[in-house]
Amino acid sequence: MFINQRRALQGVQAMHDYGCMGTRNCTGRNIIMTTRRGRRATMRAYVDPGETKAWHQLDCKHVVEAQQFGPEALNVIFAEAERMERVRPGTAEAKVLDGRVMATLFYEPSTRTRLSFESAITHLGGIVLSTESAGEYSSAAKGETLEDTIRTIENYADCIVLRHFQAGSAKRAALVSSVPIINAGDGPGQHPTQALLDVYSIRKEIGRLDNFKIGLVGDLLNGRTVHSLAYVLSMFKGVKMYFVAPQVVAMKDDIKTYLTSKGVDWEEVDDLHQVASDVDVLYMTRIQKERFDDLKQYTQARGKYIIDTKVMQQLRKDAVVLHPLPRVDEVSCCWGCLGTV
Question: Known catalytic residues?
């Protein structure tokens, strides 16, 4: 799905200089000229948010930000996900990525994201090249730029899964890479693959992606998962979003402006109990201590909104609770309690 990098496309808007060191504004780049394993190729790669969302038709399928995707692309991705769910060890489908190499390049800590990517490609016959704590144990510690690191690793792998501490880093990587860059979280920016998983889960759990209500709770300023999820859900009709967060970590204004421009109904609410009784989906996130410069502000925000037994009892019987994890103290009830909703 991610590796289809040979076909030349016509009718593109701009040519990207592959020698760019990342110091110029190249975010409008649409195609790249590259030599990949001895072959010269012209590849359609990045889709800016304002373009037609034909992500599934691109040659190099970077996953940079949630705005890249349209309904048709989501249908293609979800159909593939459903097919992958049926894959069993020992079958031909379990070797569909035989000989393919995925590099995981993580500059920030991760448990589920990194291991889930590595597990997925391993179960499909692929190979993993991995570096953990890349900021400390890779050539970044010697001063190497992210762009140069990507140019090196693209020669070893068929795709690169990148987690970085700076917002916008995935786009920087995509602008110089001839293999797909998959954004596994860029600081307080976005986490588009988590959003795809969340939307897929919502569709499976409540049976629709139109005409439902969702409460986004917790650290909405720094929570990259809620940013990406809000962008993806904005393309569906009749979705009402409630933002429940301490004022110091309220939802970013640029996202609220974007949602308004798309005609999305959203509301900021202080009362979690009120929201819990009205939503189909309650999406909980932790307050991210590592994003605070002032720990007093963190202390003020932490613990204000907690899913406890009382909140669970206020949810409708057909409502679901989602949490991207890790959890700290914002979910006080046990996993068994969550499983009953």
Answer: 112-113, 142, 163, 191
DSSP code per residue over 86-137: T--TTSGGGGTTTT-EEEEEESS--SHHHHHHHHHHHHTT-EEEEESSHHHH
- What is the per-residue DSSP string for 196-261? HHHHHHHHHHHS-SSS-EEEEES-TTT-HHHHHHHHHHTTSTT-EEEEE--GGGPPPHHHHHHHHH
Tokens of 278: 């009205």
Torsion, CA 240, CA 205, CA 75, CA 185, rounded to 10: 70
Our CA dihedral for 18, 20, 25, 30, rounded to 10 degrees, sits at 0
Sign of the Cα torsion 184, 188, 190, 191 reads: positive
pLDDT tens-digit readout, 241-276: 999 988 888 898 999 999 999 999 999 998 988 899
Taking the complete model, does pTM exceed 0.85, yes or no? no
Which residues are within 8 A (CB) of 65 and not within 5 positions of it... i.e. 6 or more apart?
A: 49, 170, 171, 183, 189, 190, 192, 228, 231
Work out the average pLDDT over 37-63.
Answer: 65
For 167, which DSSP code? T
User: Which residue, 196, 190, 140, is CA-closest to 169?
Assistant: 190
Number of H helices, E strands in the chain: 12, 12
Among candidates 5, 3, 36, 2, which has minimal Cα distance to 18?
Answer: 36
